[in-house]
Design brief:
27% of the residues lie in helices and 35% in strands. It is built from three helices and six strands, in the order βββββαβαα. The structure holds zinc ion.
């Protein structure tokens, strides 16, 4: 079984199995946070997850949920969205 090594704010290094963590992904960025209850002290912990951490956790089978962004859409996001629409294969990605 894969173990994931992380840290608790109180206990230091702890080891978890994938079912003990869950990921909260932000739809627009693909980054987010992971949450777990410390196996030593039981304290709920929350850590930021960058792209690398997200892909590692997903690869080990950690469950996730996608959070809706409440913040307004930026110009940058609109232009990225338009670029994606211009790609010829976008219709295929919907299927
Ligand atoms: Zn702890």
């Amino acid at each position: 079984m894969t173990t994931i090594r992380t840290t608790c704010a109180f206990c230091g290094d702890v080891e978890l199995i994938p079912t003990e963590l869950s990921l909260e992904l932000t739809a627009m960025t693909g980054t987010g946070a992971y949450v777990f209850d410390c196996p030593e002290c039981g304290d709920p912990q929350r850590r930021p997850a960058n792209h690398r951490v997200v892909s590692i956790l997903l690869a080990t089978g950690v469950g996730y949920q996608v959070l809706d962004e409440a913040s307004p859409i930026t110009e940058d996001e609109i232009s990225r969205f338009s670029e994606n629409l211009n790609r010829s294969d976008w219709a295929q990605q919907l299927r």
